[in-house]
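Give me structure tokens for this 1003-residue protein.
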Amino acid sequence: MKKFLLTLIVVIAEGVFYSLYAQSFTVTGTVVDMNDEAMPGVNIVEQGTRGNGAISDINGRFKITVSSSKSVLVFSFIGYENQEVLVGKQRKLDVKMVESGVSLEEVVVVGYGSQKKASVVGAISTADAKELQKTGTTNLTQAIGGRIAGVISRSPGGRPGEDDASIYIRGIASYNSGTSSPLVLVDGVEREYSQIDPEDIESFSVLKDASATAVFGVRGANGVILITTKRGETSKPVVDFRTSFTMNTPIRLPEKLGSYDYARLKNEALMNVGEVPEYNAYDLEMYRTGASPYTHPDNDYIGDMLKNSSMKQQYNLTVRGGTPFVRYYVSANYLNEQGIFNTFDNENYDSNVYFKRYGMRTNLDFNVTKTTVFGVDLSGRLEERHDNDAGTDLYKSMVRLPPNYLNYVNPNGTYGGKLNVVNPYAALSKYGYNHSKRNVFEAVVKLNQKLDFITKGLSARAMFGFVSTMASRRDITERPELWEYTKDGQYAIVSNETPVRIDTSAGPHRRNITTEFAVNYERKFGAHAVTGLLAFNQLNQHYNAVLPTGYINYVGRVTYGYKNRYLAEFNAGYNGSVQFAEGKRYGFFPAFSLGWVVSEEKFWGKSNKVFNYMKIRGAYGEVGNDKIGSEKYYYLQTYPMLTSYRPSFGIDNNPENRIYEGKEGNIDVTWERARKLNIGIDMRLFDSKLALTVDAFTEKRINILDYDRAISTIYGMLGATDSNKGFPPQNLGEVRNSGFEVDASFNDKIGDVSYYVKGNVSFARNKILKKGEEPQTYPWISSIGRKVNQRFGMIVDGFYNTQEEIDALPSRFSSNLKLGDLKYRDINGDGEIDSYDVTAIGKTRLPEIIYGFTLGGEWKGIDWQLFFQGAAITDLYVNGFGYWEFTNTGSVMKHHLGRWTPDNKENATYPSLSPSTSKQNHRLSTFWLKNGNYLRLKNMQIGYTLPVNWTKKARISSVRIYVSGTNLLTFAGFKEYDPEANDGDNTSYPQMRNYSVGLNLKF
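Here you go.
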């Protein structure tokens, strides 16, 4: 009996082992891209198993053992669609990966989660992370303008480390200053994003309508930007090293005139107003010949003090991979960008501008169990900003100072100077420096738990985020002795030498603490697909020792889909902000959206080769904005301290400060509320080669915080807006903002050449419906019915060419009008020019249209991309040192040669010159508004990837070299300022053009 049982066990065991052996087998194959080039680093995983995976080698080959012929292999690679292949009886597989540029299976990051692109019914745009990385910019805000539909940007300067662009989503819908910036979350945590290394970015989403942003409630009115960083994958380690070297040159510099023209025009300006010329014939001859450079200097401050170019270096190293237990992404980066200033006579310290950044990031995901994933994200960044102790006055002095105003160095070797101005040579030699350090530490801990044991499709997650920013500085200040050397050869002391002083300080210190809990549900019931979300989010913001602020958010979302044809979604946020009085702190912000995938209808026909996909969607909802002003706690009564006219008390009779009852609180102050409507259509045509998205939107922003200026001062207030004794602000204002967006892309291949064309255009226009302005004498002075930030000034009708014209239309701005002055339009018809003739003029500085288009392709390892970006319907207000003559010890520019003179009145392009600021000419008018429209070749890059058989012997999977340029060409109607510059005097650090060469190695 025992022998029989033993024999039976052996037979059964043999059968089991034989069966197992018979079911499992090895599959080999090759993975290639659309160009049939081998793809190393592709992840291959057997679906439904834990840890059974492989990765393609340098030749694209792979080898994996599968459990049965029913096994499905999933091939994945960043930027490509996942390929699922049923093994069947095949032992060798050849798989071609398809880029995911127009894939409807692409996952889009949304508020508190993600959705497949095909099921999204909100207005959400995404940026290709690879394209952001190709820009070569060190500031992320500089990379997104013109690349994402609905994002309007303006980049006013190029100062290293201080070159953030202004970003707006669908324009501006509030006239409160500083309240139109979007909310930005990185990996679910609010933090600064401009200095994030673009190489670390996995996805970049912009949420624009109420359906997409309602879950952010009181903080979603201005749109939301969601950035996710790269994470590890189950694969062998992939090492990626990138480096680039960049040469920066200024794009546009002021065109100043030399000393001879300056003196000649100054004499002319003085004679225009009946004064004696300042420079005699001898002076003019000395300036013309340059025969006496110390008594009659002719300085080219910009040419002498600025380098022709400066350098920038970038290095980035990443390691990405993982095992069945842990997946990791680790990166380190370094940036060094030098300023454009020359330095002189100082070996003790660097007096130039520079910016350095050191960064590290580690994203880890642990598969604790089959249903539990624990994640830890750590990142740190050190930013060093170095500046001359003269600060922004350094470049301003180069633009402002007349060329003959001072000597760089006097004949006896002392530094030249005059009172209240900066000698740029002395500043770059011996003025000291300002050096600040900023340490940023960010940590996110998260736990994801599947709860299928309760019900299929249920999961929960928790997150804790911590962001700390600490700043410190060490400044060295010194000033050399300055002497004025006069035209008659005499010395006069201007200022004594100031010994070296070292100042150190710490702060500010900011901490943000985020806590989040969420429950998700996702399940299909036949043709019905349902998802749900409930979440709690709390943010505490700490600044130094100031009372912290914060938010509490309760979030809900439900989506429903029927046969991928009919889609519905409801989003809501119930949010609280400490900005408001108790009982007013919470608000409910709902949004509804519907979608109809027309191409899923039976009448559409799957054989339609032209129209492959069409989805119509619409959304309406409300979101809020609690960033309603520069102060906090408007509901509180204020008690200011009076430090003047102080009463004296006590034996010593010392004056004491006192407090008094100030501005009354308003317990009814609440957030702005935005009511948004969006209608859109998504299409795929011509075998999905062409993708097209069109959106139209309108928004009404109500409850904008404002002062009721209609209240008369007869009530005893100093003024409605007086910060100490005025009335409290109220939620008075209303603005309507409407527009449209078009986003299109086309991908195709001709022979060995693959190419793509992408483009987008965004238009947004606003109008003020209500505002707390004082009653206006004339309707044209009112800002109601105008654009936000509408300029008000004079309309210019040419120049005063005759005395009769002056007599017929006098001006209250100036009692001494002269021939050649600007002639303004008499709007109210009272026969004279005064402030009642001020009216709305021109356009706003923020463009209403921004657009971009990209041309790119690849052929046998050679890739190229050209990105153009432009803006329209915008004006630039030019004034001050950079445009007006002789203002506040100012200089003269090339355009002043076209001034009005009796002999040039017909061709004059500038008013007759004034020796100082002109009350008549130098005021806001249509004459000083210049066309701000432009088109830029924002970025161009050409790269070459070496053939794999050249690099595999060195165990390098990919080698790419490239050259690129940024801001290479600019087409603009007005050429004296950079078209993205701020209004003003053109004294900001110039925008830069960049030329780069780079190398990318993958192992």
